[in-house]
Amino acid sequence: MSTRNYKARTASTRHMSVVRYRGVITTRKPLKSLTKGKKSFGGRNSQGRLTMRHQGGGHKQKNRMVDFMFDKRDIPGRVEHIEYDPTRTGFIARVVYHDGERRYILAPKSLKQGDKVITSEKAPITPGNRLPLKNIPIGTFIYNIEIHKDGGAKLSRSAGNYAELIALDAGYAQIKLPSTEVRKVVETAWASIGEVSNDSHHLVIIGKAGRSRHMGIRPTVRGTAMNPVDHPHGGGEGRQGRGLRRAKTMWGKPSGKGQKTRTPKKYSNPFIVSRRKVGKKRTKGS
């Protein structure tokens, strides 16, 4: 896939780009029985308090009920359509199974209309098929990975993402995640073969403020532009450095610039073989 640039008719559209959907998306209408209304919370919790900044507004959306449990085992299915999902970065595939049921799944990169998919312990190693980790060859790219058996897909679900199965040992599979972290997962957990579709998503240039608002993204104010009462980086005459050795969030917690922000006593620490690399120089393949 690739992106398409707008013609520079205005200053804001000069660098703006979108993903080319032609030839990939096969229908514009979702299946009504697999959609439901989506309420916008504007980043607020049940008490009405702001818990996630920079969210609010945006175009009205419908949720697609995507299957992440994959509890339909050993029943082959055929891809009816590849569709756009406004609530996620990757594309979704509408699959009709041999028993007549239809479900949405997260589409891998090379999946096309008419392809066959199956969730089975003896499934072929082809994109879109799903198997237990212990039955997948070492070095295979996988996505939609469970952390616990029958716990539902949790890892590597964003556009263009994939993890690599690098080892099987003592009942655990070692997986290299997109963050470069190497993590142990029980070998009986399931994963899908391939890479998540829409790998050009990260190349899109939003281009103008209005497009961000259509996407439900509200403006972000730099800490250095605030007053000292509002942010640890605030204050000073004119433009100032932050005046601190380490960058902080609005609440005084470490942030960015290669700092470790993980909870020291997190429950999953024993399952991490190698910590993720942080900082500006980190790349996906390193």
Keywords:
23% strand; 1 helix; 7-stranded antiparallel sheet; mainly beta; 286 residues; 17 strands; OB fold (Dihydrolipoamide Acetyltransferase, E2P); 4-stranded antiparallel sheet
How would you portray this structure in words?
The chain is mostly beta strands and 286 residues long. The protein has a domain at 17-201: OB fold (Dihydrolipoamide Acetyltransferase, E2P) (Beta Barrel). The protein has one helix and 17 strands. The chain is globular. The model has no long low-confidence stretch (mean pLDDT 93).
Topology:
Blueprint: E1 3-5, E2 17-19, E3 35-37, E4 62-64, E5 77-83, E6 92-97, E7 102-106, E8 116-117, E9 130-132, E10 141-143, E11 145-146, E12 153-155, E13 163-169, E14 172-176, E15 182-186, E16 190-193, H1 209-214, E17 272-274
Antiparallel strand pairs: 1-2, 3-4, 5-6, 5-8, 6-7, 9-16, 10-13, 10-16, 11-12, 13-14, 14-15, 15-17
CATH class of the domain at 17-201: Mainly Beta
Strand percentage: 15-25%
Order of helices and strands: EEEEEEEEEEEEEEEEHE
Strand order of the biggest β-sheet:
9-16-10-13-14-15-17
Count the E strands: 17
Biggest beta-sheet profile? 7 strands, antiparallel
Can you give me a brief rundown of this structure?
The chain is mainly β and 286 residues long. Helix content is 2%, strand content 23%.
